[in-house]
Design goal:
The chain has 394 residues and is mostly helical. Helices cover 65% and strands 0% of the residues. It has 19 helices and no strands. It has helices spanning 2-9, 17-30, 36-40, 45-48, 77-98, 110-139, 142-154, 157-160, 170-185, 191-207, 215-222, 228-252, 263-266, 279-282, 288-291, 293-309, 312-331, 348-364, 368-392. α9 packs antiparallel against α10 and α11 (215-222) packs antiparallel against α17 (312-331). The radius of gyration is 22 Å and the shape is globular.
């Protein structure tokens, strides 16, 4: 689907993707961290593949500092993950150029965008594999784990962001959080494991700052087994993992409250009653449950399972979702033109576990086919909604 989409419009970088892609181009092609040139580039199929691309006279999309440099507030985490695929494209383009194949090595051409997009999909598929492994820990049933993982993908906005609009932060958020949760659930109780756990938590924050709260899951799950040494090693790992985001943000802004992610939060001293607390969940275009009703069922299933089994792991994941919900609602980023509850993609594992538990309950009560029928309907609704959004942007 990604390649078909690219064959039709000949471009994979647009919207927020421009901000994440800017890091790659600046690092590899321009050999610095200033993204001003990238925000002057005019994205179009023809210009992307021009040997001397045209530029605008003013920085697009983002603000500039007092020196006129672009303030690229988009986190460097997704670019760090995609860097091997961008470098692979650059090396391949160089080889083709040497042997006489006409190829544009400007960092914007088709070979770079296709390779980077495919890299994002590879990470997303690894995230689904991690999700399947997590579900198996809860269900002990291979086919159920596989089916629910695929359903969680096909019936939610995750499908849109892994097939159509792939160069963004969502693939990275899903990959890192599911990988982090899997590592936590299988975590060996030694200092190296605590260091790696902390690094994954920190790097999740480097990809999407609010995802660093996945550390809440780790604290709740292992709180009774923590020692001072374990806490220190985990903290050290988190510092190392979050270091790229910290350096990028402090380099870009002298005052963190000037960061576009924090401005709405800083201004949230207004009455909490003025915040739209239901919009991020039920808005017809950007609401989580509006586009993925299957996740509402998964939410109910997860809550029911916790009340029945008192499983602290599910409670920990619920706390992560709750913190995400609070931040998303206060920050207000869900208002942006996008498809579905993209800002909740990192919470997919919570809903998937609830769905798996409900499916096993449906099997016991001879309601398996009713459950399957409802899931199939949700997948159909998501596909139709996605097509409608692609055509009419609503």
């Amino acid at each position: 689907m990604f390649l078909l989409h690219y064959a039709l419009i000949h471009q994979a970088v647009y919207g927020d993707g421009i901000g994440y892609y800017a890091h790659l181009h600046a690092w590899v092609i321009d050999h610095h961290t200033d993204n001003t040139n990238e925000y002057l580039h005019i994205y179009s199929p023809k210009n992307n593949n021009a040997s001397q691309p045209l530029h605008t006279d003013i920085v697009q999309i983002v603000k500039t500092d007092s020196k006129g440099k672009a303030q690229n507030f988009y986190s460097p985490g997704p670019a760090l993950l995609l860097l091997p695929f961008f470098l692979l494209a650059h090396i391949l383009a160089g080889v083709l150029h040497v042997i006489g194949v006409p190829i544009v090595m400007n960092g914007y051409s088709d070979i770079y965008q296709i390779s980077t997009g495919l890299g994002a999909i590879v990470y997303a598929m690894c995230g689904l594999w991690f999700l399947e492994k997590i579900l198996f820990i809860f269900t002990k049933h291979t086919s159920t784990s596989f089916a629910i993982a695929v359903l969680s993908w096909a019936a939610s906005s995750l499908f849109y962001y892994t097939t159509y609009d792939v160069i963004n932060s969502h693939f990275a958020s899903f990959f890192l959080v599911t990988g982090c949760v899997l590592f936590m659930l299988k975590n060996k109780k030694n200092l190296i494991s605590f260091l790696l756990t902390g690094f994954l938590i920190g790097f999740a924050g480097t990809t999407r700052p609010q995802d660093i709260l996945i550390g809440v899951v780790w604290l709740i799950v292992v709180i009774n087994e923590l020692s001072v040494a374990a806490m220190l090693w985990c903290f050290l790992g988190a510092v190392l993992g979050f270091l790229p985001e910290f350096l990028h943000t402090t380099f870009m802004y002298s005052n963190l409250l000037e960061h576009p992610y924090f401005v709405p939060v800083a201004h949230s001293s207004r009455s909490l009653l003025s915040i739209d607390w239901l919009g991020s969940l039920f808005h017809p275009t950007t609401g989580l449950f509006a586009k993925a009703p299957l996740f509402l069922l998964g939410f109910c299933g997860a809550v029911w399972t916790f009340l029945k089994k008192k499983d602290v792991r599910i409670f920990a994941l619920f706390c992560f979702f709750l913190t995400q919900y609070m931040i998303v609602s206060i920050q207000g980023g869900w208002f942006a033109a996008a498809y579905g509850g993209r800002m909740y993609i990192s919470s997919t594992v919570f809903f998937a576990i609830g769905l798996a538990e409900l499916y096993m309950l449906a099997q016991k009560r001879s309601m398996k086919y009713l459950f399957i029928a409802f899931c199939s309907l949700c997948v159909f609704v998501n596909m139709v909604s996605m097509l409608h959004f692609i055509i009419w942007k609503t």
